Request: fold
Amino acid sequence: MKAILRVTAVAAALLTANAASAAVVVYGAGPTPAAANAMVLTDISVGNTVNVADVLSPQDLDQFKFTALERLRVNTIALTATGTRATVRAIEYGLTSSTTMSFLNDGQIFTFGPTSSIGVASLNGFIMNAGDMFSLYWSGANTQSPASINASFTTSEVPLPAALPLLAGALGLLGMARRKAKS
Reply:
């Protein structure tokens, strides 16, 4: 019986450690946007629908900054940019200020005439703890004209690991079996 309890305790410790390590969000560093370009949003909590938009000027770097007020999951981030085809092709974005993703290489560009295009892309979601921050950066370093940029995502509760209820039930059954064996 002690061996079963020991194995159960080790399994619970491993499950807890894995759940805690999955919640860490760390992004690299790079050039910092000028204060006038930073957009700070601090009220991100479970159940929010977030939609941020701005005009990205040529040679500019914009930043959308988010802080989690509670443990949450940021679901897939949808990105769009509207402008001339050449501008949309040149816009870069990412979760670090060293932007390396573009609509040309990592998304899709749709052209609606000689002067109008839209770029569409997405970033994978992730889990945040209360107090964690993340930023979404947009670079117009290689653009010649302004573009409208937009990012949207929803937040949800962090799902409970499927094994946790099973572990709790198994511990309860072991406790009842032990109690019954003593009597």
Confidence is low (pLDDT under 50) at residues 1-31.
